[in-house]
Amino acid sequence: MKHLLRKKLIEKRKSLSKEQVFEKSERIQQRLFNLDEFKNSSTILFYVSYDNEVFTHNMIKESISLRKKVIVPISVIKDRTLLLSRLERFQNLQVGSYGILEPRPDTIKKTPIDKIDIMIVPGVGFDRSGHRIGHGKGYYDNLLKISKNHLHIGLAFECQIVDQIPIESHDLPVKRIITEKRIINCV
Fold first, then answer.
1. pLDDT tens digits for 144-174?
2. What is the C-alpha separation between 128 and 176, in angstroms, rounded?
3. Would you call 151 helix, strand, or coil by DSSP?
């Protein structure tokens, strides 16, 4: 059931034109950047978007220019974990695992999870309770598990919000979801 929902949601996301992705992502960015928690934060983990996800490249660049410490993940395939690294310049990214931009090896600056104020989390889909469905590899599930006390914010297009995501015992919800139309407070 979960894999069918994932497939359907990916198809919906991929049906958006590049113009729609950029326009909706810009509205999502405005909502995120207007949050008091964002304004008051100094260190933010962003996923680096790919494959028609909510576009975070401009969010990352602008956060760097606002003198925020931007942290981005690096996929460690052997144990399906994410290594967290500070990103000082967007140009320090190169194509890495799964075709996603990651810091070049010579620019990696490992950052402990307890130094992060806000974690911006991707998802293939979310429900209004904050449950998410990812790509099924478990990277972000592991990250959410070891950072329960952080503010986790999911970014999604409105077409990615569904009534209910089937959950398993290891699934942890995000605390907020931001779409181009609203902010959903989940827990």
1. 888 878 899 999 999 999 999 988 877 789 9
2. 9
3. strand
Tokens found for residue 6: 């994932």
Boundaries of every domain in the chain:
2-185
How do residues 26-71 score in pLDDT, each as one tens digit? 999 999 999 999 999 999 999 999 999 999 999 999 999 999 999 9
Buried/exposed code over 111-141 (b: 16+ C-beta within 10 A; e: otherwise) = beeeebbbbbbbbbbbbebbbbbbeeeebbb
The Cα–Cα gap between 126 and 144 comes to: 15
pTM equals: 0.94
SS3 130: coil
What angle do helix axes 18-34 and 57-65 make, rounded to 10 degrees? Answer: 40
Name residues whose C-beta falls within 8 Å of residue 11's C-beta, 6 or more positions apart in sequence.
none
The SS3 call for residue 110 is strand
Could you say which of 3.40.30.10, 3.20.20.80, 3.40.50.1100, 3.40.50.10420 is the CATH number of the domain covering 2-185? Answer: 3.40.50.10420
